[in-house]
Amino acid sequence: MQQQRRHNPYPLTWEIPLGVLLGAVLVLFYGLHAGRGLATWLAGYGWHWPTPTALVSSIPGVVAGDPHAGLADGALPAGATAPVLVCIIVAELVLLAGITILTVWGWARWGPGRILGMATPTQVENVLGVSRLRKVRHVIRPDLYPKKRALR
Q1: What are the DSSP calls for 61-84, one per residue?
Q2: Dist. CA 115–CA 32, nearest whole Å
């Protein structure tokens, strides 16, 4: 009902959803490398991040389970193996859960179905709550709660 009474002069455009989608893809993209870094760190070889030029080109190797893909030569010992795929899946699931929570929160906060002009629970308590009624009880029922008089 509230949406029918209000008119939004700004149309929904494609820029904001595209920016959110690209941000989510970028977070998941870096999640691959974070999962590999987590795997090498848990295996005892330290945290390793690919060189900037190999960020994109190393993705197939990282997904295939190669802990050496995209790293500088000699960054990991030759026999270093780690459960790369398990750590990538865990990292991606954690990031996906975070993105989902942020999306649901943002949609409720700024989406088209949001409730406009509603007071917060704290504001309602301040105006209509029991604590305020007790504070002004002498005004509401002066016969039961007379105003306290100052001693002379």
Answers
A1: HHHTT-TTTTSPTTSS-TT----H
A2: 38
109 and 126 belong to one structural domain = no
Say yes or no: 6 and 56 in one domain.
Answer: yes
Q: What percent of the chain has pLDDT over 70?
A: 89
Q: Which domain holds residue 76?
A: 2-118
Mean pLDDT of the chain: 85
For residue 73, the model assigns a pLDDT of: 81
Q: From 44, 42, 81, select the one nearest 64 (Cα to Cα).
A: 81
Q: Which amino acid is present at 118? A: M
Whole-angstrom CA distances from 91 to 7, 75, 84 are 42, 22, 10
What number is the average pLDDT over the span 100-104?
94
Q: Is the pLDDT of residue 54 over 80?
A: yes
- Does 114 lie in the same domain as 47? yes
pLDDT at 98 over 90: yes
- Asked if residue 29 and residue 6 are part of one domain, the reply reads yes
Which has the closest alpha carbon to 67: 80, 52, 54, 86? Answer: 80
Domain count of the fold of the chain: 2
Exposure class string for 104-115: b at 16+ Cβ within 10 A, else e: eeeeeeeeeeee
